[in-house]
């Protein structure tokens, strides 16, 4: 069955080996807690203020990538490569952007360059990236073999002496399981996929990509309510995830229960401290209910939090259209 993977590329975690300030760094804490919007903003302010260090720049680029700003992320990774030609993340990041853009030959080039400069502890990230490259090229057996290598490379000599913040380590250890889960899905092995994603949750209870995979398994098994619940669980442990939000919206569209959709997004707005993405989605629900004033208020609130948010701008344009006529 042909399908579109809108979000399920397991994005590489940044391992901050050798960074003595990692455990107190606000950028690291935000990124490790999957608040990529917060990490982007904090690191961006440090960069603008001229006080950014290597970790700030790396996490700023990865946060942009996590949020789907691929062109901006590419520029940041390119700048890192110019400043530090031996920086593993500069090349790995460029490789991931090329994967997302479907430029697989260029992705291979950048991943080869990343391999030149990687440390032993960074092998899981490289193997995972190569695995997803093979996956998107529909080379599923090769992808499975690379995810096996990802799992094997998680265990290496002196691992306990590398100062990696715990949230990042937990995310790191989900790398093989999400990849294996999606290979199993495309092969129609839904029970096996379910087991792999659950194995990932054992390592990281806030693995939103594991919940997303479980949601997809449930949907393919015809368990729509379970699929919705699992997608919501995923969104409850990550902030501002466009792709998982799109997955939830497809499920809610199929459910066709406007009251349930409104209830879900009101809860997400509350638990996310008013995230702009969820505010905008809630605005559309009010618009569908015919409550244009409330929808307009929510769109404006979303734009105050994230100026330029296309989703909110489109909502305001829909409200203004009848007046323009």
Q: Please, could you describe this protein's structure?
A:
With 325 residues, this protein is an all-alpha fold. It has 18 helices and no strands. The chain has two domains: 22-256, Tetratricopeptide repeat domain (Serine Threonine Protein Phosphatase 5, Tetratricopeptide repeat, Alpha Horseshoe); 257-325, Serine Threonine Protein Phosphatase 5, Tetratricopeptide repeat. Helix content is 71%, strand content 0%. The model is unreliable at 1-20 (pLDDT under 50).
Write the SSE topology.
Layout lengths: L25 H7 L3 H13 L5 H13 L3 H14 L4 H13 L3 H14 L5 H14 L3 H14 L12 H7 L2 H12 L3 H14 L4 H13 L3 H13 L5 H14 L2 H14 L4 H13 L3 H14 L4 H15 L1
Helix pairs in contact: 1-2, 2-3, 3-4, 3-5, 4-5, 5-6, 5-7, 6-7, 7-8, 7-10, 8-10, 10-11, 10-12, 11-12, 12-13, 13-14, 15-16, 16-17, 16-18, 17-18
């Amino acid at each position: 069955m042909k399908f579109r993977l809108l979000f399920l590329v397991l994005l590489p975690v940044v391992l901050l080996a050798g960074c003595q300030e990692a455990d107190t760094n606000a950028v690291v804490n935000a990124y490790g807690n999957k608040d990529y919007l917060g990490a982007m903003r904090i690191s961006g302010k440090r960069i603008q203020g001229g006080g950014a260090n290597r970790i700030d720049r790396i996490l700023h680029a990865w946060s942009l990538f996590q949020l789907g700003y691929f062109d901006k992320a590419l520029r940041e990774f390119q700048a890192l490569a110019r400043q530090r030609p031996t920086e593993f993340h500069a090349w790995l990041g460029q490789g991931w952007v090329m994967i997302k853009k479907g430029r697989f030959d260029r992705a291979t080039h950048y991943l080869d360059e990343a391999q030149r400069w990687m440390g032993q502890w960074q092998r899981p990230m490289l193997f995972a990236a190569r695995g997803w490259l093979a996956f998107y090229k529909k080379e599923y057996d090769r992808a499975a073999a690379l995810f096996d290598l990802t799992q094997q490379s998680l265990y290496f000599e002196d691992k306990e002496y590398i100062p990696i913040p715990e949230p990042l380590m937990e995310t790191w250890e989900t790398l093989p399981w999400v990849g294996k889960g999606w290979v199993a899905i495309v092969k129609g092995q839904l029970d096996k996929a379910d087991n792999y994603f659950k194995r990932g949750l054992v390592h990281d209870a806030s693995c939103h990509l594991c919940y997303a995979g479980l949601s997809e398994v449930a949907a393919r098994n015809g368990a729509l309510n379970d699929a919705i619940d699992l997608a919501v669980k995923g969104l409850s442990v990550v902030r501002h995830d466009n792709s998982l939000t799109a997955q939830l919206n497809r499920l809610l569209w199929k459910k066709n229960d406007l009251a349930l959709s409104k209830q879900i997004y009101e809860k997400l707005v509350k638990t996310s401290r008013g995230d702009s993405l969820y505010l905008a989605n809630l605005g559309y629900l009010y618009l569908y209910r015919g409550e244009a004033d409330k929808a307009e208020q929510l769109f404006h609130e979303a734009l105050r939090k994230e100026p330029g948010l296309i989703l909110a701008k489109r909502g305001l344009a829909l409200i203004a259209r009848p007046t323009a006529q």
